[in-house]
């Protein structure tokens, strides 16, 4: 069974016929590291499922500082939710950090699948709810936790990323400068 079907089956059961129909509405592509799948200002037309590799979503502020919103590893979904749902230009970039195989589901095909396999609406509602909860938790963490506590949560949420992505991206994700992150990490390792 493909990884994306396994992911869906965590929340809903698809018949073999429904699985084939779902897969027929997706496209699988491989991308090299540093490929930009979505630029800020574009309308997000796909949800991306990571079969292998690592992706990140981020934006760049007026001072040319990157702010990483999320990482997506094998078995995770990623997209610009605001833009995908509203079909308005978004403010996120989505970049491939490590060579990746990505399953792409267009907004148009997702809507078709809702009609042909109504229980997929439940699946995507669950994904959207989980995303909302994770974003709210992240916002509250950024408001109330220390940098060390945010780093510890990062290590728990993304245990495989510590050795795979640059420290400056981890610093961006937890909301500190790379210099502060380096000092903090050294201090934590001495403990």
Commentary on this structure:
The chain is built from 8 helices and 6 strands, in the order ααβββββαβααααα. With 191 residues, the protein is of the alpha+beta class. Strands 1, 2, 3, 4, 5 and 6 form a 6-stranded antiparallel β-sheet that branches. Helix 6 (147-157) crosses helix 7. The model has no long low-confidence stretch (mean pLDDT 93).
Summary, kept brief:
This protein has 191 residues and is α+β, with helices and mostly antiparallel strands.
Query: How large is the share of residues in beta strands?
Result: 15-25%
CA-CA gap between termini = 44 Å
> Helix and strand string, N-terminal first?
HHEEEEEHEHHHHH
Rg of Cα set: 18 Å
Give the total of beta strands. Answer: 6
Counted by DSSP, the helix tally is: 8
Global shape:
globular
Mean pLDDT: 93
Helix/strand class: alpha+beta
Unreliable parts: none
For the largest beta-sheet, the strand count, sense and barrel status come to: 6 strands, antiparallel
Specify the helix fraction band.
40-55%
């Amino acid at each position: 069974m493909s990884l994306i079907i396994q992911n869906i089956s965590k929340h809903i059961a698809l018949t073999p016929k429904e699985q084939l129909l779902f897969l027929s509405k997706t496209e699988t592509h491989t991308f090299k590291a540093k490929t930009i799948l979505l630029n800020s200002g574009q309308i997000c037309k796909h949800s991306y499922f990571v079969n292998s590799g690592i992706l990140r979503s981020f934006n760049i502020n007026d001072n040319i500082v990157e702010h990483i919103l999320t990482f997506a590893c094998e078995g995770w979904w990623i997209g610009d939710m605001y833009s995908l749902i509203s079909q308005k230009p978004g403010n996120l970039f989505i970049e491939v950090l490590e060579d990746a195989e990505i399953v792409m589901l267009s907004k148009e095909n997702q809507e078709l699948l809702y009609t042909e396999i109504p229980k997929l609406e439940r699946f995507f509602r669950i994904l959207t709810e989980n995303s909302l909860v994770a974003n709210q938790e992240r916002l509250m963490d950024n408001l109330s936790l220390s940098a060390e506590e945010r780093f510890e949560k990062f290590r728990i949420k993304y245990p495989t990323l510590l050795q795979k992505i640059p420290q400056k991206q981890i610093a961006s994700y937890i909301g500190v400068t790379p210099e502060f992150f380096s000092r903090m990490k050294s201090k934590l390792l001495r403990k």
